[in-house]
Amino acid sequence: MAANPFLGAWQRRSIQFDAGPVETAQRVLWIQGQTHFGDVRSLPFAGQLTPARYRAMTWRQRFDAGLLGFAGNFTWIAESPKDGICTWQHTLALTPRLWPDSSRYHWLSDHEFLEQGSCLDDQGQSHRFEEHWQRIHSGPVQGWKLDQPDYRGQALVAGDWAVLIVTAPHAPQMTQPADSFAPFSATVWQRVNGTWRSQFGTADALAWDCPWTPEHLSAGGCDRPWQPWD
Q1: Is 215 helix (H, G, I), strand (E, B) or coil?
Q2: How high is the pLDDT of residue 165?
Q3: Count of CB atoms within 10 A of residue 25's CB?
Q4: C-alpha to C-alpha distance for 109 and 178, rounded to whole angstroms
């Protein structure tokens, strides 16, 4: 298998919809392994996110809320040295999708690229967006999975950065605005002076507190809940 050119930890520098303003306020960390990934974003709103609040949001607000954290599988197709198509499959998410998430990419340098995609609003109108990504750690990347009767999870670590995404194993697939949310947690962690500290994620928006941190990834014992990817 060819080495993944997106391997490592990435921060989003900006996002722009259509011809609107270039937005830089939301913090985003994406860690990409060879095939698995995790993406976590800071809250673009204050207070709790409930199903009723989600249904009352505008399409753009739901776009941001649905992408607070997600993980799954990643593939890419290179059409030229600088351009191609990348696809994320959201298998773990607050609002899991029945469809893949595909965008075009254009490399600006070895550690910087533009992602160009589109999404539909409530009236079915397409809106273009462009995200500017910068790599902050080129790997290696370690990955773990959590597969229990009550919860599934995916975790990735690149250097001093980690993302943990955990959800109930049978979260409803999204074909319309949510009627309920399964327990869900997505958190970015940074190792500072040898100690893992949470940086941002869903803790302030969702009612469920995740019981796991990066410390559990390397805990000894054959019965540990988190297992390295094969």
Answers
A1: helix
A2: 96
A3: 8
A4: 39
Full-prediction pTM beyond 0.90? yes
DSSP-derived letter for residue 201 is: E
**What distance in Å separates the CA atoms of residue 23 and residue 130, rounded to the nearest whole number?**
10
The closest alpha carbon to 108, from 87, 134, 88, 127, belongs to 134
**31-72 residue pLDDT tens:** 999 999 999 999 999 999 988 899 899 999 999 998 999 999
d(C-alpha 148, C-alpha 143), whole Å:
17
Distance CA 229, CA 39 (A): 17
Which of 108, 137, 166 is the C-terminal boundary of a domain? Answer: 137
What does the radius of gyration of the chain's CA atoms come to, in whole angstroms?
17
How many whole angstroms from its chain centre is CA 89? 10
Q: For the range 29-32, what are the long-range contacts, defined as Cβ-Cβ under 8 Å and sequence gap of 24 or more?
A: 29/161, 29/163, 29/188, 29/199, 30/133, 30/163, 31/141, 31/156, 31/157, 31/158, 31/161, 31/162, 31/163, 32/4, 32/6, 32/7, 32/8, 32/74, 32/141, 32/156
Whether 145 is in a domain gets the answer yes
Cα distance between residue 6 and residue 139, in whole Å: 10
Q: Which domain holds residue 190?
A: 141-228
| 83-118 pLDDT, tens digit each | 999 999 999 998 877 788 899 999 999 999 999 999
Residue 3 lies in a domain: no
Distance CA 10, CA 132 (A): 10
d(CA 117, CA 207): 31
Kind of pairing, strands 69-78 and 83-93?
antiparallel
